[in-house]
Amino acid sequence: MNKGKIKRLRNSAQIEFIEKKSVFIGFSTIVKNEEEALNIIKQKKKEYSDATHNVYAYVIGDSIARYSDDGEPQGTAGMPVLNSIRMSGITDVLVVVTRYFGGILLGAGGLVRAYSTSASLALEAGGTSIFESYAVFKVTFSYSDYGKFNTELSTFDAIIDNVDFGADVTIDFAIREEASSKFIERITELFAGKVVPELVNYRIDTK
Fold it and tell me: What HEC string does 109-153 produce?
């Protein structure tokens, strides 16, 4: 799980960039996994089947990064697109840059600049949102501990999802993942191990 703040694309976007009569169409979109990314790439290649090249790169989470030059000279297309994504700091994103050759050779340097520019413009056009990763917990304790526990939730800026007042109090809540270990340490110390929050899941919320 990617801890802390996560930068993601807000919307899918498409731009057009012309360099020495070659037309570059940059497309950026959010992707949740590699299967989704590959399906979109397939769709784009079908949509622009008459194009000279359909170059792509995607980054998912903090461990997956792929790219393709799609017939352009090695290192002049896919890698510049991937570098543009990395420089933006955006994750869970796919960029496809389609090229229609205009009859004038751009050279290696020209290709790198054109693909980098197209990718950067497509990412910029999509806008970004900042998300944070949260650890989701469930805890049950006696009514006598409610006030003290609730104070700790406020101290750690917890998001309370649900409170059930039954025979005991049960609370579903979320804590920023980067602060969750410190929260558990604090609760363990404060209640001498009698109150133990159960980690249920992780989630991503808009900041």
Answer: HHHHHHHHHHHHHHHHHHCEEEEEEEEEEEEEECHHHHHHHHHHH
Q: What is the DSSP letter of 31?
A: -
Domain residue limits at 139: 131-206
Q: Residue 22: beta bridge partners? A: 19
Tell the residue number behind the tokens 């697109």, with chain if given.
81
Buried b (16+ CB within 10 A) or exposed e, 99-127: beeeeeebeeeebbebbbbbbbbbbebbe
Residue 142's pLDDT is what? 95
2-6, 28-32, 68-72, 177-181: least confident range? 2-6
Residues 182 and 115 in one domain: no
pTM value is 0.73
Q: Rounded to an integer, what distance in angstroms lies between the CA atom of residue 12 and that of residue 77? A: 21
| CATH assignment of the domain containing 71 | 3.30.230.30
